[in-house]
Structure formats: structure tokens, C-alpha cells
Amino acid sequence: MINPPLFLSNKLKQIEAAAARAGLPLMQRAGQCSADWIIKHHPEAQTIYVLAGPGNNGGDALVTATLLHLAGKTVLLRLSAPSGPMPAQKALAAWLAHGGQILSSTPNQADLAIDGLYGIGLNRQLGDADQQIIAELQALACPVIALDIPSGLMADSGDATATIHATHTLSFIAHKPGLFTGKGCDLAGEISLHDLQIPGDLFLAPDGHLQTQAPSSIAQLQRKPDSHKGSYGTVGVIGGATGMLGAALLAGRAALHMGTGRVVLGLLDTSLSVDSVQPELMLHSAHEALQHPALTLLAVGPGLGQSTEALELLRQSIASSLPLLLDADALNLLASSAELAAAMRQRTAASILTPHPAEAARLLHTSTQAVQANRIESAQALAQRYEATVLLKGAGSVCANEQSWSINASGNAALASAGQGDVLSGIIAALLAQGLSPLEAVQSGSWLHGRAADDWRKAHPNGIGLTASETISYARAALNQVLGKC
């Protein structure tokens, strides 16, 4: 299976325009495939409420309503405003010609609701009248099928305020990134793609892609018989201040389990001389670890804290010629120092940043809300500002460098627990140490981390109680399973 391409709305509109010039009846095709899908997947639904807006998305809903009416369904149609584009006007005329009626309010009940209020052209927050219509639709407490995208959800960013919460989204032509990151992960429900039979030569190059399966680059991790621990890198994890030793231990254990040849922990709190759970880890003071002769890369931040000593360790790490991964407090210290930001841009070795939204906001000197309002743009801005590969964590994690971006499709809310970010840092560091490029390591690491949670959830369907320590073994199993299929 190929990872699906993702298109921003501007490019989707260009594809639609090319299809229109080619004489393809896209609105009719969208309505036909929607009606067919609904009849197949919801045959029991007899009374169907259709909410149609003023644009082409509303026209899709009108065609769907007409076809469902002709199929013997009781269709209750409400128009939020007069139809605008000519194809939508023709769809309305066809609905009326077949005896369809128009409601002035939301019905009291329905077996199924169809959302055709707004499509990908929406670039503003919804007004009070639309918000009221949406609230009334949701109050029906029946399955909701969104046509192309849930109304109110921004197709390019995944941002939303008052929005349709769909049971299923029928995505037309190609997938939109907003369906798979940020609030889209909650609002879109299950998603199916319907290309409307548009020929491949009318498509433009995609803007990004959705990582639905293991990156093919993982195949590079296959091991040769004539190799040794030095063949697979030595990761130095710098962190573990007093009260936060566990973060560094988790990162180190994850790096070891995911194939790193050796792991050196450089700890600010030197009270621990051996990890009794993972005695293979080599424990040193942070300053000693930075001088370890075998290091091939540094992962700085798990449990680092923001002390003066932590700041100096970060400064030395950035000045190092080794590949560098920064997470947690390393990111917060970086955000507070223009000097360190400039030093990051001067590095010649690879740099990786793995912020969650609040850390990303500090790095960009903006608000968490602004980061979440456009996660893709935020990840790209971080990559450009710090000349680094970026993993913006959260629902639909965004992987980006200065040239490209993707959205990770694996994972679930079971990962919302302490220490998961430390484990993810260790996973990415291990993959980088074994030879993957920074972007390959970030994409593969985020996918494997999410896959670990998906596999765990098969035995725990409610998704509560996954610890970071448990995630490590599931991620290793996922990696070996993928390698077994290469």
C-alpha cells in the first residue's frame, strides 16, 4: 500500500478546475458515490436529514439528496443559504423537479444526517447562524456523514471552532491534511477516499503525504552477519537531573531496545551508578559523557532541567560536531537564548527537534493556540528557523524539514502518558545511529512509536494505562515485524 498523498486546498482547486475543463461532472459523481456509499453502509437508515450549504459542497449534498430520494428514502433537506455556483443551482433545480421539499428548520429526528454545509473553500470561523445549525444537527444523535470534510474544519490545517463531528467522512478527489492532524483527528471520524474517477494525468504533485505504513527506509536496518556493536552507533543521552532520572533512563532503554550498539547516559544527578533494569546502559556524569570517545550522536533533553549546568551542557552539545536531537528542556532552553538559536543555524551536522505544541510555541515565540491552528506551517517554520528536521508531536504528528512534510497516521490517545516523549526520543536516536537520515529517522520513529500504541490497544481497546516503559517492547516488536517483511 502506498502512503496516500496529501493536497492543500489551493492545489485541490486547481485539480478540480482541470477536471471541469475536461468536462468531468464532478458534482454528479460526488453525489452518486455518496448515495451509493450510504445505501451500502447504512441500508437501515430510512429518514435522512441533508444539510446543504451555498457552495459546491452544498451542490454535492443536493445531488446526494436527489439520488437517495429516488432510491426510496425519506429525505429531509435544509438549505442554509441560496445556492451560488451554477452547478449547485442546477442540482437544486433537479431536487425540486423530482418533488423534493425544502425545510426551514432542522427536523426533530432522523436515522442519518449528511453534512454538506461547507467544503474545502472555507477559510474563516463560522458565524452564529451556522453554529446554531450545526448544534441542531449534532443534537439529532444519529450517525453523521460529512461530504469531503466536516463543515467548519480547515482543510489545510486541522483547525476548527464550531464544527460538525462526523461519524464518517467521504473525502473526494484526494485527502486533505486537515483530516489527519490537530482537531481533524477527533472530528472526521472514519475516512474513506473517493477519487471521482479523475484521471491521474490531471493531478499535480502532492504537497505532502500521510504515513499510514512503515517507511520503506526501515529496510536499511537489516543487519549483516559481519557486524558488531560499533556498527550500530553509540547514542549519548544527556539529561537526568535530580528528580528526573527516569526520563533519561527511558530514552536510553528505548535507544538500546531499538538497535543502538551502545548507549551512554550522561546524568546531571550522579547518584545512580547502574540501571538495575537495564545494566547494559553506561552511566556517567553528563560532562564525562560528552567526552566519551565512541559517541556517534547526542540526544539532549530528557530530564535535563533548566539549571545553569543544563544550559552549559546544551551549549556544548550544540557546538559538537555530532548529529544532535533536542527534546524537552533542551528545547525550552534553546527557545530562551538567541545565542543558542544562532549556534543551531551554524551547525554542520544533522539536527533534530521534537517539540510538543507548547515547546514549539516557545521556539517560535508565539502561542500554543497559534501552533495548533496550523501545525504543518508551524513545523515548517521551525525547520527553517533552526535549520533542522522537526517532529511536531500531537494528534497527527507532523514530520518536516526545509523541503518536505508528512503526517504520521499511527498512534492513539493511549500515548498521552508521562515519559512517552522520552521513549520517542530514544527510538529516533537509535534509528539515526543505525544509519537512517534525519527525516527517515523521524518518520520511522514516530510511526513505530504510534504503531506500538496501536498494537497495545488491540488487547486494551479502551486505551487507558499504557506506560512509557511498556511502549518500548511494543516498538521493538513492531520494528522486527516490519523487518521480517522486508
TrEMBL record:
Cofactor detail note: Binds 1 potassium ion per subunit.
Catalytic activity: (6R)-NADHX = (6S)-NADHX; (6S)-NADHX + ADP = AMP + phosphate + NADH + H(+); (6R)-NADPHX = (6S)-NADPHX; (6S)-NADPHX + ADP = AMP + phosphate + NADPH + H(+)
Alphabetic keyword roster: ATP-binding, Isomerase, Lyase, Metal-binding, Multifunctional enzyme, NAD, NADP, Nucleotide-binding, Potassium
Superkingdom in the source lineage: Bacteria
YjeF C-terminal domain mapped to chain residues: 212-482
Binding annotation for K(+): N57, D115, S151
EC number(s) on file: 4.2.1.136, 5.1.99.6
Residues the record lists as binding AMP: K393, G394, A395, G396, S397, G421
Cofactor: K(+); Mg(2+)
Gene3D superfamilies in alphabetical order: 3.40.1190.20, YjeF N-terminal domain (3.40.50.10260)
Residues engaged in binding (6S)-NADPHX: 56-60, 119-125, 148, 247, 303, 356, 422
Domain YjeF N-terminal span(s) in chain numbering: 12-204
Entry-linked InterPro entries: Carbohydrate_kinase_pred_CS, CARKD, Nnr, Ribokinase-like, YjeF_N_dom, YjeF_N_dom_sf
Recorded family membership: Belongs to the NnrE/AIBP family.
Function: Catalyzes the epimerization of the S- and R-forms of NAD(P)HX, a damaged form of NAD(P)H that is a result of enzymatic or heat-dependent hydration. This is a prerequisite for the S-specific NAD(P)H-hydrate dehydratase to allow the repair of both epimers of NAD(P)HX.
Known partners and oligomeric status: Homotetramer.
Protein name, as recorded: Bifunctional NAD(P)H-hydrate repair enzyme
Organism: Iodobacter arcticus
